[in-house]
């Protein structure tokens, strides 16, 4: 499933009409038919309620007029309130407006000079409101009557069903422009819009469904749309079936540099994560004095004691050994719990410049990189960085607020500038590849807010890299399966109290689910 901006959507609509030859009015009919079926799922007794369609002046209103007709045909009590004089309507919206009269559907036009409360009283009696005021054609801040109407609608104790996007929400950024409808459900057309999947927009859409309105899927490729929504369906095709003769030597060997005094848990979780996604072998480089602890904590993974600093953190003297060992390995994960000790920093810098295999850099390694990000350009092998918003802010020398308000732009710009795959963690994790591919994750839940979650993710991404997945796919699979395993374990049941190691138990089942989905399609 692809995610588009408002202007990309307009381009795809135009191409479907002009190049493919599907008339706009057909798309409008398809849109409304799909939306009507979805709204009936969301509000099963919809046809017994009084339905008010709030209409603006563009094609979004046109969709609303078709919905009014469809529900009237099914016996519902429907009325339409035009917030702008119908003389402003054009094209397909106008055609569908004219049909209302023939079907005796009551239409009221808002009188700008009239008293608001008197005119609103008719809407107040509605059992459900259909929001067809503004769609992807929103151009500027919502003011005046539209603003009043949106705020009054939000205060009604009835379901609001949004057509394409809640009115007032910027489809490209997810920010309300002035104000926006808080919908019970949104039927969106053709593709997801960025504004529906990122914060704060995702809090406005309610239940969200993409309606197929007949835009040929090949058009998205032709128009260079490369943003993906990570779901079971979109990822199943990427899970490679495992040959029956697979053995530990052919399933990838992952090396891990993690842990220092007080941080042996991070090292453990990375190793477990890599193993749970199917890495054949895992070896942990650990400061020598901590080796006895890891020998006990880890069962399947092997340990490799390395020279350490006086603070029991990895020392740069370990670099030659690590490079030699990693020479015939498939992936290296480095960073969690290694400290910011200056000698550990030298080790990380050496690894970035000389590592002989793809690497995942997380936590302390990311903080070390943020001191001299140009270091990343020296890497000989692909890098995946997995910052949380605070680490991302350090990487770009900005604030957490800037990062959080512009997650997609920040991730894609950094990825392109430094030639790395970037995983910006947090709600709706963003994965960006240097060639412009981008994904937003749909899985995960608040029970994941706890220490160690990032370590398990680092291990999972390294585990996929180790099995030969290219960095962007390894990152997307790791991110999605991580959240999906947490959903399987806790989603909808509990919102807190899930140890990071718990979700790992569910990882193989989630991968199995994707494999089964792949084999069916
Ligand atoms: N062929 C197509 O292009 C299709 C479009 N569809 C619908 O069409 C919508 C887009 O239609 P339009 O491009 O006509 O745009 P909209 O219907 O979203 O709104 C455009 C109108 O609102 C006005 N407007 C914009 N910002 C405003 C603001 N802040 N305050 C007050 N008025 C404002 C504009 O001047 C214009 O008159 C989609 O969201 C979707 O619902 C669907 O019918 C599917 C097919
Ligand atoms: K709308």
From TrEMBL:
Single Gene Ontology BP annotation: metabolite repair
Assembly and interactions?
Homotetramer.
Q: Which organism is it from?
A: Syntrophobacter fumaroxidans (strain DSM 10017 / MPOB)
Domain YjeF N-terminal, chain residue ranges per copy: 9-221
Instruction: Specify whether Aminoacyl-tRNA synthetase is a keyword of the entry.
Output: no
Q: Where is the YjeF C-terminal domain?
A: 231-514
EC assignment: 4.2.1.136, 5.1.99.6
Provide the function of this protein.
Answer: Catalyzes the epimerization of the S- and R-forms of NAD(P)HX, a damaged form of NAD(P)H that is a result of enzymatic or heat-dependent hydration. This is a prerequisite for the S-specific NAD(P)H-hydrate dehydratase to allow the repair of both epimers of NAD(P)HX.
- Pfam families hit by this protein: Carb_kinase, YjeF_N
* Protein name per UniProt: Bifunctional NAD(P)H-hydrate repair enzyme
Q: Which residues bind AMP?
A: 425-429, 454
Family to which the UniProt record says this protein belongs: In the C-terminal section; belongs to the NnrD/CARKD family. Belongs to the NnrE/AIBP family.
Q: What keywords tag this UniProt record?
A: ATP-binding, Isomerase, Kinase, Lyase, Metal-binding, Multifunctional enzyme, NAD, NADP, Nucleotide-binding, Potassium, Transferase
CDD domains, sorted: YXKO-related
The reaction(s) catalysed by this protein are: (6S)-NADHX + ADP = AMP + phosphate + NADH + H(+); (6R)-NADHX = (6S)-NADHX; (6R)-NADPHX = (6S)-NADPHX; (6S)-NADPHX + ADP = AMP + phosphate + NADPH + H(+)
